[in-house]
Write a structure and sequence with these properties.
about 400 residues, mainly alpha, about 45% helix, two-stranded antiparallel ribbon
């Protein structure tokens, strides 16, 4: 990092250290617990006046609290926005003093009731359940959740992986496997996938391979003129028995990465600081795009991306006019269309149309499509024609 950046960090840290020293001096001036019975009463953990050092901030005077919070926010701003700031990641650590949970009477935190030991759920633990001691219990809880003897975790995970491959999950509500959710039609399939997932050592790649190599996954959503299939359509119009594939639109991340890949602009660089998704020079995979929760761009809102404020088990898919308007007027889509046409090497119209179809759809155009394209190009540019292909249903929907 450059010297001005280091200096600014040093100034902020020095200011924070000064405030911390002031707080420590105030703490040192408190009476000793060993010599003062009144201090023992007031400052012990059992005292109603006790609070941890982490909570000191909440008891500062308004002026000190505002000053402290301002300095911390400035440091966070530098760490997030400065291009020369060091990489960082959020981690979780135990508190110095572990919490001893209790049951709040009638849900009121002001009326603590009986204590509850930190331990896993009884219904999933069996008779050998042991309370967590010597730590916060987070690691033990994680190990219990991922224990091969706990079938619920495997069922939930394979259900969500299935949902991403087929559009619909086996269990209708991915976040509720209780009695409020209807029993899945293919519950034996759910158990089979869960057992294979556990036996493979919780390897998701093996789960993907097993699902995607199945004949069910390779079905088409297009129903041919077959009498038996037509009868099946009348018996099972919702396709709950999976006799065909469900047509579904690419989600936001898939759509953006597809356009970047077809146009030859996809940046597959891994790691590093994520750029804003609205940055016109950002051609990295969408999984690395940075989205500001307080300032959601239009592309995120109109293409049903998950909320950044809440946990979303299953996205809602909508079809609204704003999506088509974005595809027609977006600078991003126009830039991808221009990049696509820059890859054309043929000299005459029919071969160039063939190249576009091969790049966009991976197939050869039909004679009728070549004729329609030729007519369109008499009044429009190649970039306009490439944009038409990039926003077509054939590209945006999976059949």
């Amino acid at each position: 990092p450059d010297e001005p950046f280091l200096n600014s960090i040093a100034v902020k840290i020095a200011a924070l250290d000064k405030q911390l020293l002031t707080l420590e001096k105030q703490i040192d001036d408190l009476p000793s617990l060993e010599d003062d019975p009144l201090a023992q009463l007031l400052l012990s953990r059992e005292s109603p006046c006790w609070f941890s050092e982490r909570d000191v901030y909440h008891y500062l005077a308004r002026q000190d609290k505002d000053a402290f919070r301002g300095l911390v926010n400035e440091l966070d701003g530098i760490a997030v926005k400065d291009s020369t700031a060091a990489d960082r990641a959020m981690i979780m650590v135990d508190k110095p003093i572990f919490c001893e949970p209790v049951i709040f009477q009638r849900g009121d935190a002001a009326y603590p009731g009986n204590s509850v030991p930190r331990q896993f759920l009884k219904i999933l633990s069996g008779p050998k359940r042991v309370p967590y001691t010597g730590s916060s219990g987070r690691l033990e809880l994680a190990n219990a959740i991922a224990d091969p003897q706990n079938p619920l975790t495997a069922r939930v995970w394979v259900n969500r992986v299935w949902m991403h491959h087929f559009g619909n999950p086996l269990v209708e509500n991915p976040s509720d496997f209780g009695l409020n959710t209807q029993r899945p039609i293919h519950h034996e399939l759910l158990d089979l996938l869960a057992i294979r997932f556990i036996n493979s050592g919780f390897r998701t790649k093996a789960l993907h391979r097993f699902i995607m190599s199945s004949s069910t996954y390779r079905l088409s959503s297009i129903v041919p003129a077959d009498r038996k299939l037509i009868e099946q359509s009348s018996v099972d119009p919702d396709n709950s028995l999976l006799w065909r594939a469900n047509r579904r639109r690419l989600d936001l991340e898939q759509m953006r990465d597809t356009l970047l890949s077809i146009s030859g602009q996809l940046d597959v660089t891994m790691y590093g600081r994520p750029p804003l998704i609205t940055d016109e020079s950002n051609y990295r995979r969408t999984v690395y795009a940075f989205v500001e929760r307080q300032n959601l761009p239009n592309i995120v809102q109109i293409f049903d991306a998950a909320s950044a404020d809440t946990s979303t088990a299953r996205r809602v898919t909508t079809t609204v006019p704003q999506q088509a308007l974005f595809a027609l007027n977006s600078k991003f889509v126009t830039a991808m269309a221009q990049s696509l046409t820059n890859q054309l090497t043929a000299k005459t119209t029919p071969p160039k149309i063939g190249q576009l179809y091969n790049l966009a759809f991976g197939r050869t155009p039909t004679p009728e499509e070549i004729q329609l394209g030729t007519v369109f190009l008499q009044a429009n540019s190649w970039t306009d024609y490439a944009q038409v292909l990039l926003i077509s249903n054939e590209l945006w929907f999976i059949d």
